[in-house]
């Protein structure tokens, strides 16, 4: 994938880091999921489409609440991992970009997008989301990010990513509301938003894996550069991090409601 507004147009491919993604990025704490069910979304009796599902983190972790899940991702490798991790769960997976997803009118009560909303061509997907949602249907946009200015370990790791990939645009996060493109105002209205602080537990190994699975490293760098980064990042963590620690994150939720009559 390439996008001139992301990483200065540097190509990236989540499929290259699917194994790490499956192992190290299923990290959302229970409070993150609780924010969703408190909104009475993704629950029993609802049909949900998860767009940009990656390794199926959202449907797998919310499956216990009884919704009927369909999920799609542009990466075949990501979907392969999602199917493996979802064995025994009735989740329907598809390999498709958000812009290419086609289901009948009024198919879903909720469409979710977690950690992926900014990758979409919104002028293309917004009318399709509207068409596929039922009357009163919701789009639920979800996000979680570490806070490099408040957390020493996160800040040091982020600086090292930038050393190896200066064009990576995922750095410098602060607590903020999810930005919704103006085009959604044509057919949706804001229903809710919330931003909240989270402490996410890691070990040195799992934090190293989480950083390797980020877009700026595993999804875009050459194997040689990844190896060099790994050596330096492991040495850094030996110096600054205990065996187990929390990394300060924030979570954000934005809920949109259809304006269908």
Number of beta strands:
7
Overall helicity: 25-40%
Radius of gyration: 18 Å
Give the overall form: globular
Largest sheet: 7 strands, mixed
What class do helices, strands and sheet pairing give? alpha/beta
What's the number of helices? 8
Strand content: 25-35%
Distance separating the two termini: 37 Å
Average pLDDT reading: 96
Uncertain runs are none
N to C succession of SSEs: HHEHEHEEHEHEHHE
- Provide the spatial order of strands within the biggest beta sheet: 3-2-1-4-5-7-6
Question: What features would you describe in this structure?
Answer:
31% of the residues lie in helices and 26% in strands. 39% of the residues are buried. By secondary structure, it is α/β, with parallel strands linked by helices. Helix 6 runs antiparallel to helix 8 (223-240). A seven-stranded mixed β-sheet has the order 3-2-1-4-5-7-6. The mean pLDDT is 96. The radius of gyration is 18 Å and the shape is globular. The termini are far apart.
Can you lay out the helices and strands and say which pair or pack?
Layout: H1 18-24, H2 30-37, E1 47-51, H3 57-62, E2 68-73, H4 76-85, E3 91-95, E4 108-114, H5 122-132, E5 133-146, H6 152-164, E6 188-203, H7 204-212, H8 223-240, E7 244-258
Parallel strand pairs: 1-2, 1-4, 2-3, 4-5
Antiparallel strand pairs: 5-7, 6-7
Helix pairs in contact: 1-4, 1-7, 6-8
